[in-house]
Amino acid sequence: MRILTPSKKVFLTLIMTTLAYNINAQDQNLTLNQDPKFEQLLNDKRKINTSLTTNETYKIQIFSGKSEEAKKTLSDFKREYSDIDGTIIFNTPNYKVLVGNFKTRIEAERNLVEIKKKYKSVFLIKPTK
């Protein structure tokens, strides 16, 4: 390792200070040109998102297991109950089939009784708040 003389240390310090002083950050001025329809689309999306209340609806879980079995269960369910929506979610380590978007517990329990006739291991999932 080389040892620098005091004059070289001062010289390097001055160079580093000068370089650091001349470094500038990006300018704060930003010009954004966007299509006026973009803001309209954002407003429409905000309206739709406020009307969707996925956490405030009751769902019924009809299956929990492997992926292929979950897909088969969902397709069988959709054939039999075409008016009730269903989806598959992955919750480690299982795939779960959830059906319905019921606003009230009473509505969910009525459908639960009907679905229980065909699917044995079903239960109601309460909304999270």
Automatic annotation (TrEMBL):
InterPro entries, per the entry: SPOR-like_dom, SPOR-like_sf
Superkingdom: Bacteria
PROSITE patterns: SPOR (PS51724)
GO molecular function: peptidoglycan binding
Domain SPOR, first and last residues per copy: 52-129
Gene3D superfamilies: Sporulation related repeat (3.30.70.1070)
Spans traversing the lipid bilayer: none
Name of this chain's protein: SPOR domain-containing protein
Originating organism: Flavobacterium pectinovorum
